[in-house]
Amino acid sequence: MDSSETGRTRVHIGPLEVDSDGLVLKPKFNLGIQSGSISAMAGVRDVRDGIVVDSMAMYMKSYASMGQSLLEFLQEMKSQEPCIVDEVIMAIPDIAAYVMETVGADIRSDKITLVEGVMYVYVGVGVSAGVYLGWVDTEGFAMMGLQGVIATVGGLGFSLRSGLSEEKMAARLVGFLTNVGFDIIIRYREPCRK
Question: Among 106, 163, 101, which Cα is nearest to 132's?
């Protein structure tokens, strides 16, 4: 979700990833390139983040936002880019409430110190399937959920996963519906789960 990562060009060859920082070996096996808003990838993603197999080519635009509550976060998102799909923005609180309840996190604003995230709008073609089984990923969250995408011109897809950070001071919600997605981190004043 780091916005500094979006401008970097990365080349993926099997377990190797090459960018301006050099060569990195990761537990993955894919081929492709990512540069700015354009991505073309095929294979198995980094298994530390979940088990995902895909073959996708896409163009993506991202919008970052932050706020002291989920409502403030969404209002800031909408003010940046009025053409962002209203239905998805309106669905985020309901999706967040259900998922956060499932992982034991609270989305009431008096418990939250910061909500930050990115909304993605993308077009592309490809297929993707994945499962997130609750182990701690490379971002420090124990993510659980499913992913299934058949991206065409009209776009069909669904991906929803959520999890808590190891110290239970943050919750993460990632979802993709049709051709719009979001990646939100909610930070708490105190541990959000026993």
Answer: 163
